[in-house]
Structure formats: C-alpha cells, structure tokens
Fold this sequence. Notes:
This protein is of the alpha/beta class.
Amino acid sequence: MKDENQGTEPLAVGNTVLAAAQAALAELRESWDSRQVAAWTHMVLGRSGRVILTGMGKSGLVAQKIAATLASTGCPSFFLHPAEALHGDLGMVTAQDSVLALSNSGESEEVVRLLPSLLRLGIPLAAITARPDSSLAQAAEWSFTYRLPEGEGCPLDLAPMASTTLQLIWGDLLSGCLMSRRGFTKDHFALNHPAGSLGVKLLKVKALMHPEWPRVKSGASLTEVLRAMTEGRLGMTTVMEGSTLLGVVTDGDLRRALERAEREAANPLRLTADQILTRSPITLDEDALALEAAGLMEARKITFLIVTRAGLPTGVLHIHDLLEAKVL
C-alpha cells in the first residue's frame, strides 16, 4: 500500500537545499565588493600570464570549472592540483601568472602548504572562501568571501552544497567582469568554440571561405576554363581582369554554352570565358555570418558565393564548407 506521506521528506529536504543556496546568494548580492573585483581584474589584464585555479576536493572540482570558463571567455587559465604542485607541478607557474585558490574553510592543508611558495615567488594570490579570517584569506591580496546564513543545506550539514554553489557564482562573476573589461566579443567567443553550436552560429564567412580560388581572364579558352575548374575543385571558376570580378563560370554555364554552340553549328573549342560566364554572381561580405550565407544559398538554390570586402573578391564559400562546419 502506498504511503500517503511519500514524497514529503524529499520535498522538505529539497526546499532546505534551495533555501540555503538562496539565502547565501541573496547575502552575496548585497555584500560583494565591486572595487575589489575591479582591482583584481585590473591586475589580471595587466599581466601576460595565466590565471591558475587551485583547490582540494569539491572546491577543486569547482576550480576546474572556473578555469574552463575563464579559458573559454578569453582569459588563459588552467587548474593546478595543490597536492601535485607540492610535488613538482609548481614549476608550471610562471612569474607572469596569478593564482585564484578555492577553499570553503580557507584551511585546506594542501592549499595552505602551497601559500608560502607562491608568496616567495611573488605570485599574485586571490582567494574564494567563506572565512575572511582564514589562513588563505589572510595570505591573499584579494579575498572573495561569502556567508552561509542557513548552512550548507545538506541533511547532515556535512556535504558541501551551498558553499560550492557560491564558489561557482563567484567564478562566474569574476569571469563576467573580466570579459567586459577585456572587450570580449561574440567573434572572440566563436573562435574559442569552433565545434560548439554557439560557435557555429557566430562564425563569419571569412572563417570558412577559400582565400585561394580558381580564376581565369575574360579571353581564356574553353580548355583553360575547364582546367581552372578541375584544379579548383569547386565546380566553378571566377572570370577576372586584375582585381575586378567580371563573372563566374559554373558547370551549368558550360552545358548551356555547349548546347548553344551545337544549335549554332559553332566550334565549342573557340568559346572564351567571356562568352560562357554568368555576370553579376551572388556575393556576400566576408564579415557576414555563415548562417546568413547558408540562408542565401538555400533561397537562391546555389552552391557557392563570392566573398567580398569593399566590393572586391576575397574568397569563395562553397556549400560543402557550410556542411563541414555543421552550419547546415
């Protein structure tokens, strides 16, 4: 028989977890020091090195996430395990780096043992911790603290729950401020996420186009046109005079030209590029989004675009390039 009270305990426990995180977050929103954050971001942007994250246990896992967020948003960063650092990996830290250490108590043994070496090397140190009076916070030049008014939210009050949530929030806050101060744009984001769906949506045409493309002069013979198309492997060639685009020759243009020559009883080998070409081909600026190029190709039922800058051709974008990049 089903217990009528089934689900009551999970509801109560879940609400306790949520309430603990919500209370801590509400207090952080009112208490965080924007001037200290600004000073830290100024330091990071003024150095040529990386932001190195470190922490033990659950704090170490959060530190890895923050390092990944920083790296993906324009700030070179990696995670350094404090125990491994004590056994030689400290050599990975350079004089131009800075360290952001995480510890809820601020007294994690491996992290605290690492502090004298970092200070001796003159490495700028920041901390994310719940205790401003801890060894870590006292050693750090920038201390990003939080309080847990309703504890961790754990039913046993043992497992880190609200504390790791607040550490993650601090990591996102610092990452966001760095992005803003650095002038990190959607274009930069796309470059750092070439395989992701977000990155694909932000890719520009110039990132996918062929900067070298087949071309012939207007007086080129049929055989020269065929050779350019074969070697270019794009199913087309441009017809140009210097840097000026006169038109393009496609497989369809060749078929139509040969049919016309047959009807007129003309020798097709006497055809030249300017007699075969399609004038005014579809073009798109190189700074346009690849998604725009995909929409244009689908709407016009074409397989390539001439990419331009200030009206002059700079490349060719083929539909296969869009398929390979998973834009289509």
